[in-house]
User: Fold these one by one.
Assistant:
Number 1:
Amino acid sequence: MRFLLINPFYPISETPSPPLGLAFLAAALERAGVEVKILDLVVFPYSKKTLESVLKGFLPHIVGITAVTMTFDNAINVIKDVKSIDPEIITVMGGPHVTFCAGDTMNSFPELDCIALGEGEETIVDLVRAVEKVGDWGNIRGLVYRNGSEIHSTGIKPPGIEMDSLPFPARHLLPLGRYRALKMPVSMTTSRGCPFKCIFCVGRKMVGAKVRYRSPENVVDELEYLSTLNFHQINIADDVFTASKRHCLAVCNEIMRRNIRTKWSAFARVDTVSREVLDKMKEAGCTTLSFGVETGNRDILKTIKKGITLEQVVAAVKMCKDSGITPHTSFILGLPGETPETLKETVDFGEKLKGLGASHGFHLLAPFPGTEIREQSTKFDIRILTSDWREYHANRAIVETPSVNRKMLDEIVIEWESEFDEWLGEIKRLMERGEATEDEIRQLVDLERTVLIYDLMMGKIIEEKGAWRQENTPVSDSEALKALVNRVGSSTNNTDEQVFDALNHAAEQGNLRCAEDNGVIRWEWVDFL
């Protein structure tokens, strides 16, 4: 049995990391004896011709794809292409979006054979077994499937997978080198589940209210492996890493016991941190902690069931700074009860936290399928402006409240984006005068390199122009690199110096390599680590 897993296109501006969910699924399938391949369309350009080549080369029996709301359209279009190329392939989709609008999705897209609901590792293996034995899909918990003209659902499977029973994610199937070249973080989890009840989030409904923890030894085994891959940052992607003080401290102590020296970041709530916890996290390698603050208005905090106070936010930020951890705070604009006055409170509160040393960012409310705020939008007195899933990226307004319209919301985010662009421009001017700090130079150079390398990857420029016959061989690596720059430079909007800097850095970091074979020089991205 062969199973192709696909990660749909996701914008680089969203800071994607190697697809952890797919890697978990792949590991579960491999353990069940299934041959698995992953096609990652975040770092590989998509075309139907490319898909056809993969399908004909791998000959999968099943193709599965994941999707969040903003990537659903990209994902379903790939499914349509799969069926047009080979109608006999079974198609399945998973992820939070289709979990909470499965019926509508199946009725609207006949190319999709089934949907895996919620946690998918066990469901997807059960599906494979049923396909192998030509068995009854109705016995598979957590599946919505097509049977002729009828749609059947076996109901969402209650979350409950024992975390230590899962194999480590099958990262050997992921193009980690491309993510590393783009300076994206690599992620891992130490638990599943969220005990909190925020009305704008589906995490609790996807993975359960009860938090299931991996053992500290199991967690740090994986962290230790990731530390060997030379990513600049490891992101612990738990909904709330600090939900259990005991678990958090145990993981940190195990990291320190093994003397692992690597940088990592995590997500937390302001009411789950203390100076003791933060000091231990810092000692274990934590550099950044992200807090969802959401709003600067006390009444809105109660409406959205956030369960925190503004005083706790300030205290958490101060404790982070005292412990040497960089705090990041995020806000959601357009929440129920939003008015011009509450918007100003939120913006002012963000500036207050900035003065205390916290970075901050704004997103706009996206009422995703499955969230309480979408299901009860009338109760919360918000108007949802569109169900075009491509617009659910949280960077432009798609909701309005009685006293705040789309334009008012967009203006705040656009101004914040403009301030960031102005900051980058100021760094450039400081660099020209020789007055920029090393940290400022590093941030700007890293960003420019990332943009250039991403353009080269998604334009397939190295693949198309990175090989040539060299009459006088061998040549030095520096000569081969200069020749590569000459060949690809005209395909970008950058100077030869910028192209050389980016490619030379990628080569030095082990993300780009050159080989010579029978007089042919060939450059290629190092996809698999």
Note: The longest strand covers residues 286-294.
Number 2:
Amino acid sequence: MVDIVGAVVAPTFVQPIREEIRVLAATPQEDGSPAWQLLDPVRNRFFRIGWLEFELLLRWNQAEASAIATSVTEETTLHATSDDVEALNRFLQHHELVQLPGGRAAPYLAKRAEGQRGTWLKQLLHHYLFIRIPLIHPEKTLNRIERRTRWIYGRAFWISTALALVIGGILAARQLDTVLVQLSDSMNFHGVIGYTVALMFAKSLHELGHAITATRYGVRVAHMGVALVVMAPMLYTDTGESWKLTNHRDRLKIAVAGVAAELVLAVWATLAWGLLPDGPVRSAMFFLATTSWVLSVLVNASPFMRFDGYFIVADALNLPNLHERSAALAQRRMHAFLFGVSEPDREYFPPKKARLLALFSAVTWVYRMVVFFGIALAVYHYFFKLLGIFLFAVELGWFIILPIWRELREWPALTQQVSTVRKTLYGLMALALLGLIFLPWSSSVYAPGWVFPANQRVIYSPQAARVVAMPFKENQNVQAGQVVFELEAPELKDSAQQATILAEAYSRQAANLPVISERGEALSAKAMQQSREMMQQAHAQSEASARLKLVAPFSGTFQDATEGVEVGTWVNSQLPLGRLVDAHLWRAELLVPEQALDRVALGQTVKLYQHHHAVAPVIGQVTSIDAVRVTVLPHAMLDVHSGGSIVTHHEHNRDVATEALYRVGITLPANVSLTNEALCEGRIEAKPQSLWQRWLPPLLAVLVRESGF
């Protein structure tokens, strides 16, 4: 063989394919070209190849790469090169589909197996993250079950199931309040047991649906068992041989069968729950229905993890290895966007479909990152501290950090192809990012709060009394010293009169007693003492009656008069009668988070923006900072449940702020014109702070808190 400059090049020979490897027809490629699958029956693995690879394999017995390529080019409409043959040869070697020379096969395979197993630590981590435990080999049993359940796949059964769905849905909708009550009542120990049993039954039926449908289409179910995913048990069915089916719609039916079985169970269980009387059977139907509906929709239908939803989408689109192929497509798009690298896609897709697949890959990566981070937090809190930290690191490292690191390793080679303009732009962006993180540019502290009159008084009766007079009505002006409410308590007047009469009686008794002896003098002194006590009691009762005239302590407006209170009405000391408000001077209070409190100081300027009002901000000044965190909110309207923005939780019969908040008092100018209390958002012109300064203390606090054993 001679190259273009006349040098002799040694011919390249390919390795023969193993004799047991089978070639099966597959559904066409996206561009309409034919496709095939290589079956390795020893490992039960399938490898998809295209038209060019198939034509090369047809001539593989020619052994020499250039001869195979020339034969394909001359005998077909395809153009093949020696590089194509060598690439296919490397692919076959990598997946152990070729024969090895005598005497070298056993040592080579042993060495390769040892390399694939890796270190003991890697094996331990692999078995911790995922392990499958086959329990049964149900091929014969499934054949018998499939023959007896063919009626399930008939039209009559599905029509009756649709009717059951309609009737059960109507019955459940009519008893929605009962459903909600039963859901609430099932959140206990017995409910957990009921849901667990229902889950086991539903999942067993789910896997049986896969197995029976696979058997129906001639796919051998090698085994069924339990898979441990991060030590969490899940049932599984081995339907790996479904790729023997050339029609992707048949594979789709196998993938859908599990979810369909659960949904059918949910439909008939819902109907049974709606028709049965109260009792254990009805409760069991409730557990089956709720478990099947929720898990089928929320878990199995997700296409972002390798659950049924993924295989359903892959088979519906006829895209085997959907995650890997979309990830490769998204990676090429990302390289082109970041580095301007023009790399051809490994396989052809229409432009619109290619964009959707790339977007699907990006969403899948974000979804998985959130799920795996949640699993990492779960295992951290589930196990004891030392093991929890280790497993937390394993989860983050294996599922999040390692994929990112593998991608970043390819970037140095790609940066060599980046243009000077793009490098300069990235340098400027990096400097801007560093400045954003480390420069103290943020000089504002934002906090929720409320504005209110500085002088206001809620009017209460000192005791149970009857309203005698109400001189003022709603929104009328009141001058300081004027009576707002006049009340009376007849028992006070009676007690004062009785005490006065007794005082006079004791006084006369003291005057009439002879004082010529010590005994007479003592009795006279005792009577005088009793007279003074009665006079003091009468005076106290008179003062109590005088306090029933509720006088305005300052000038203002009478507001929020209690509905139903009028002359002649009896009121108690817990009933607010109204509110006196001085609208000339206003104040505000902001609830500042603990991490921003050190940036707030007395005298700082504050801008207050009222909620739902597009008006100019009110300028105020910080005049007080509480040293103790707020537990109960100063006004109910600040609570998120009442339209505010502060999240609370119920504790000790009161709503307590979830976040550590501190009250900051704001004084407003005297010329501020406001009409009523309102929510506001405050912006305090505080000390400048960088993002790094903002993030570092909470991060260190978490590390210190969690480092204790």
Note: DSSP finds 20 helices and 20 strands in the chain.
